[in-house]
Design a protein that fits this description.
heterodimer, A: 7-stranded mixed beta sheet, 11 strands, B: mainly beta, 6-stranded mixed beta sheet, globular
């Protein structure tokens, strides 16, 4: 039972490089989310996908794009990485929108931008 | 939008003592309040949740209380053990457009000294 799987676990980029963070869930959940976690800031929502085929901006979307590839997969793309995007990124999923169900999180991608 | 404040940011207790973490929220329409535990190098994991039609919920050494009038909820851990040491996050889930989105507090680092 893998739950939510994130790849890669660690990545170092140079300023201006691009990369895509991958996330997949095997729980047949409708909703998926991308967060960033910075010291003392908690979890801040970047983008979410309430259901397959839809995506919406969260609190801190600037500099990021997302793709809901299918029901299982939700990717986060940094087109031109900046040092301010150094963070730990978490993907999460939950059962359905409009239903009070908890989120299930992956173990994160630790991203450093030099 | 929703705003969630969490206190304290750090809590240090002796093994066997009780620990209390408090959160306040701003949106009176919020109706679901989960608590997550995050161990070092891992993603957050749900430990207990409460819905707005309930005032208190217990699960062994963990309890959550909710005061909807005052818009605050608290996590209580009794008989703390060293393995309870972690970062704890509260969240409040409210409606944003057509979806229900959780807003997280900034986290409490709990340290249990043996």
């Amino acid at each position: 039972n893998a739950g939510v799987t994130q790849t890669p676990k660690f990545q170092v980029l140079k300023t201006g490089q691009s990369m895509t963070l991958q996330c997949a869930q095997d729980m047949n959940h409708n909703s998926m989310y991308w967060y960033r976690q910075d010291p003392g800031m908690g979890l801040r929502l970047i983008y979410y996908s309430a259901s397959e085929g839809t995506t919406d901006k969260g609190e801190v979307p600037n500099g990021y794009n997302v793709s809901r590839l299918n029901k299982r997969e939700f990717s986060l793309r940094l087109e031109s990485a900046a040092p301010s995007q150094t963070s730990v990124y978490f993907c999460a999923s939950s059962e359905a929108r409009g239903v009070n169900q908890p989120q299930h999180f992956g173990d994160g991608t630790r991203l450093s931008i030099l | 939008g929703e705003n969630v404040e969490q206190h304290p940011s750090t809590l240090s207790v002796q093994e066997g003592d009780s620990a209390v973490i408090k959160c306040t929220y701003s949106d009176s329409a919020s109706n679901y309040f989960p608590w997550y535990k995050q161990e070092l190098g891992k993603g957050p994991q749900l430990i207990i949740d409460i819905r707005s039609n309930v005032g208190e919920k217990k699960d062994q050494r963990i309890a959550v209380t909710l005061n909807k009038t005052a818009k605050h909820f608290s996590l209580h851990i009794t008989e703390t053990q060293p393995e309870d040491s972690a970062v704890y996050f509260c969240a409040a889930r409210s409606r944003a457009g057509g979806s229900y989105i959780p807003t997280f507090g900034r986290g409490t680092s709990l340290i249990v000294h043996p």
